[in-house]
């Protein structure tokens, strides 16, 4: 007679759990070996072939910019950095991959940058028609054509910054008033971008403090966001209904929450019946058919994407110029002679600033040395692809190394690691074009290219001229002039400076 014993009666409890553990281990081992086998033809750090820990730990340490550059140096332009991630350090191939007609799309990693999950914004949205449609509604506003008073908002912000320095941070021979330029620069860019985005400045410069602890909260959450983005199941969990309470909300007293509340209030006023059609950025979004919730999200994007990025380039240019006496003197002389020849207004116009060759070369070097966004920005394709002559199986995440690209000796010369604006001045037309194409990648490319680029460039052109024509700057700590942490976006602090009025010996 066949046994009617159940499975649990024939197998003891410990043996059962032992079997489960064994099957689980075998399953993990098989999936690891399969993962390794898929990309076995791509070299990289040994552990990266088997686990994500190499990539996650480098992200956590804030050293990914250097580490990915080192990996590309050691293993070539394509290297493996995790079981399903490779990195590309070749500028032309990155351009091709990010280009308009590329077979690649943004990878699921971007989900990690949703500001109000599960809703997407331009920063988190993958390609396709929805993204293209959203961009078409935003582009007229971002281009500045549809917006009155864009330059005036920037001018007013810079003027407020100059007043702040003059009132509180000017040193003389009898008064020493050191200032953390890194922090104050971000107050300026936040006030400018909020004026552009919402029609009202946050008032960071007026209060001369980190309002709502916005900067410190955002800076401390960036490393975590970058790590979480690498772990798809964790993103899904954190963005699920159950974890809603952990996400920033307009009810929060600090961090992004209060900024969300401002966005909600200001945007809400534009969508009431018979609302006035204002010729500003938000007005442009409304006129081009952006829905109210989309407009709230995209206003926040401007603050997040458009404040510290611009401040980073300003700081990077300032710290490199101020610590290079020959460049510093020549740049001041270029600005002085334009002022003396009455070629520039106060403040300088964007057009005139573009005519100052050394200034432009310094800004380009600033982008190149420390790109504000140096995160992995992975792309993925549902078909096999070939990059740098190597077959990349469908479904592989392809990151870029900002360092390998921006410090490429074949593009920028053997001294690519040095801040050397003269490389732009002495390059022939062909070389210059190749270098331009490469630093353009600091703003992304194609379908996902930065929409705020014209705004950032106007700000930088004006800020640097207006600061250097008025003030002398000295870095206080030459051992470590600035603190840089590369958490996908570059977080900078402690650029302590002594600022004095030009030619002021009193
Ligand atoms: C120096 C300043 C800036 C740098 C280096 C920069 C860099 C970038 C990069 C690299 C991307 C593309 C990311 C990707 O490919 O996934 C991007 C996207 C974007 N940036 Fe910027 N950005 C800067 C300033 C700004 C400003 C001032 C604004 C707003 C006023 C802005 C708004 C945006 C938006 C809306 C996108 C999303 C575009 C899309 O996906 O369709 N950025 N930026």
Explain this structure to me?
It is a single chain. The chain has 506 residues and is mainly α. The protein folds into two domains: 7-38; 110-370 and 418-501, Orthogonal Bundle (Cytochrome p450). The protein is built from 23 helices and twelve strands. It has helices at residues 7-10, 13-38, 53-61, 64-75, 91-98, 129-143, 150-168, 181-198, 204-207, 214-228, 232-238, 256-270, 281-287, 292-306, 308-322, 325-340, 350-354, 357-369, 402-406, 409-412, 422-426, 429-439, 453-470, and strands at 78-82, 85-88, 105-106, 179-180, 379-380, 385-387, 390-392, 397-400, 471-475, 483-487, 489-493, 496-501. The strands form five sheets. It has a three-stranded mixed sheet. Helix 3 runs antiparallel to helix 10, helix 8 (181-198) packs antiparallel against helix 15 and helix 15 runs parallel beside helix 23 (453-470). The longest helix is centred in the N-terminal third of the chain and has 26 residues, at 13-38. It binds protoporphyrin IX containing FE. The site of protoporphyrin IX containing FE has 23 residues, from helix 14, helix 15 and helix 23.
């Amino acid at each position: 007679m066949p046994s009617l014993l159940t499975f649990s009666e024939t197998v003891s409890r410990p043996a059962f759990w032992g079997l489960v553990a064994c099957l689980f281990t075998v399953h993990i081992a098989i999936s690891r070996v399969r993962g390794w086998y898929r990309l076995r033809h791509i070299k990289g750090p040994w552990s990266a072939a088997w686990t994500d820990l190499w990539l996650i730990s480098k992200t956590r340490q804030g050293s990914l910019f250097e580490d990915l550059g080192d990996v590309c140096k050691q293993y070539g332009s394509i290297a493996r950095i995790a079981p399903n991630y490779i990195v590309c350090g070749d500028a032309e191939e990155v351009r091709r991959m990010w280009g308009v007609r590329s077979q690649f799309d943004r990878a699921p990693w971007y989900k990690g940058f949703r500001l109000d999950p599960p809703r997407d914004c331009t920063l988190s949205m993958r390609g396709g028609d929805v993204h293209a449609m959203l961009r078409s509604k935003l582009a007229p506003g971002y281009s500045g054509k549809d917006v009155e008073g864009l330059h005036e908002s920037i001018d007013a912000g810079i003027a407020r910054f100059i007043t702040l320095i003059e009132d509180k941070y000017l040193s003389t021979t009898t008064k020493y008033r050191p200032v953390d330029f890194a922090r104050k620069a971000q107050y300026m860019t936040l006030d400018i971008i909020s004026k552009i985005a919402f029609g009202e400045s946050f008032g960071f410069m007026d209060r001369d403090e980190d309002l709502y602890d916005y900067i410190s909260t955002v800076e401390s959450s960036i490393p975590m966001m970058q790590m979480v983005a690498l772990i798809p199941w964790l993103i899904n969990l954190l963005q699920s209904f159950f974890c809603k309470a952990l996400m920033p909300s307009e009810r929060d007293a600090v961090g992004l929450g209060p900024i969300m509340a401002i966005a909600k209030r200001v945007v809400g006023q534009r969508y009431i019946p018979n609302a006035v059609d204002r010729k500003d950025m938000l007005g442009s979004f409304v006129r081009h058919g952006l829905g109210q919730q989309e407009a709230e999200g995209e206003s926040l994007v401007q603050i997040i994407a458009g404040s510290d990025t611009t401040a980073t380039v300003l700081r990077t240019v300032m710290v490199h110029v101020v610590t290079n006496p020959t460049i510093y003197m020549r740049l001041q002389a270029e600005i002085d002679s334009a002022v003396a020849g009455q070629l520039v207004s106060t403040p300088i116009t964007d057009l005139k600033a573009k005519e100052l060759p050394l200034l432009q070369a310094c800004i380009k070097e600033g982008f190149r040395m420390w790109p504000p966004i140096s995160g992995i920005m992975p792309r993925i394709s549902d078909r096999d692809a070939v990059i740098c002559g190597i077959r990349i199986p469908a479904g592989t995440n392809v990151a870029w190394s900002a360092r390998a690209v921006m410090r490429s000796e074949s593009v920028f010369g053997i001294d690519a690691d040095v801040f050397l604006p003269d490389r732009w001045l002495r390059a022939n037309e062909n070389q210059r074009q190749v270098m331009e194409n490469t630093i353009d990648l600091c703003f992304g490319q194609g379908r996902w290219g930065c929409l705020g680029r014209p705004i950032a460039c106007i700000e930088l052109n004006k800020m640097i001229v207006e600061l250097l024509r008025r003030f002398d700057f000295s870095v206080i700590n030459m051992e470590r002039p600035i603190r840089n942490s590369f958490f996908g976006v570059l977080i900078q602090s402690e650029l302590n400076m002594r600022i004095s009025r030009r030619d002021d010996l009193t």
